[in-house]
Amino acid sequence: MLTPAQAQERCQALIERARRAGAEAGDAVYLASGAESVSVRLGALEDVERSESEHIGLRVFVGGASASIGSTDLADAALDELASRAVAMARAAPADRFAGLADEHLLARGPFPDLDLDDPAEPAPQELRRLAEEAEDAARAVQGVTNSEGGSASTGRGVVALATSHGFAGAYAASSHSVSASVIAGEGGALQRDYAWASTRFATDLPPPGQIGREAGERAVARLNPGRVKSGAMPVVFDPRVGGSLVGHLLGAISGSSIARRSSFLLDHDGAQIFDSSVTITDDPLRRRGLRSRPFDGEGLPTAPRKLVDAGRLTGWLMDSAAARQLGAVPTGHASRGGSGAPHVTAGNVVIEPGTLTRAQLIADIADGVYVTELIGSGVNGVTGDYSRGAAGFRIVNGEIAGPIAEFTVAGNLLAMFAAMIPASDLKIERGIDVPTLRIDGMSVAGD
């Protein structure tokens, strides 16, 4: 894996080759990662893995057309061939009046903010094994846990570099550390599985592995002997670990490409009040040590914090340059790049800001409802907003979490769900998308 400085130099060298080969404009992206993980099961070492990948991608523009190509070979001869092939492909491609680099005056200018994303610590395999064993041991120690799918710990590091033909060049490195455990509770045919995990940029920010393991074991035991729920309209409360998926549907719906294709259920809702006024959703790509932080986007534009929803009101779309041109707007610094192809939209660290009620207060007046801890399937229509997913969790009876339930479906329409959403005060920043407990009244629950 190259250093950020070396990766930036390779991207700039590839752009120069493309210009010499006849490209009118272009950009190059370097993506590399290396990871090591150790897994244990029932106290014994099960697997040790080491993976590495390195890729450089080139996008060129010739006569209004574009082409993308990539390679894992970074040698000079390979870059020469990559550049000439990309230009030849672009000359044979159809023109696209919306494609192109970001406007030069919008580009990010260094020095870029230091987001503290790269942990110099590199745990040895023995330390990863210790973490995995501690997590699994703590999970198996929970009364009622009868088997294990294992504990694991991993560490990784990646490098991202981007250079464009009109003056942008930047690179950064980011690390990751994670611990997880997955166990089974019960006997015979009455088995239940659950898990817990944590991931951080720095090893010192991880919670104790024993805490992660205990959480996995307690979750599995709590699911034993699930009942069924009767069908009907009732309040549905989403646990934070599944509630973030609702934000994912929002992000897809406000992507500029979805709006430009007129394939979003939020079409024509720019600036509209779509949530209760108590709901504010923020996007902060500059959070220090954030799991989705980055100092610039996939087109070389600056990233910045933003309210996606302000007191319930939608503030606009997330756009790369192509979508912005289609919509007659300005890109928002949300472009992301893969190893090949055009940019796509990705948000940063997204949070539904906490409300004023504790979880207990949020459910206190629910006589009969469900508390969802697991969602199954992908029955969501991004065009209409129709929502239907399999679920498991617990009943809520007279304001209290009651026994476990399984094999039911929760359904509604995302516009109505967003309008009815009430957040609790129990927000924890643990993932790239973080939400407190969320309550939505009037959803359809299909069980018995």
Automatic annotation (TrEMBL):
Metalloprotease TldD/E N-terminal domain spans which residues? 35-90
**TM spans (from-to):** none
- Where in the numbering of this chain does the Metalloprotease TldD/E central domain appear? 119-224
Q: Where is the Metalloprotease TldD/E C-terminal domain?
A: 231-447
> Can you tell which superkingdom this protein's organism belongs to?
Bacteria
Q: Which family does it belong to?
A: Belongs to the peptidase U62 family.
* Protein name from the UniProt record: PmbA protein
Q: Which organism is it from?
A: Novosphingobium capsulatum
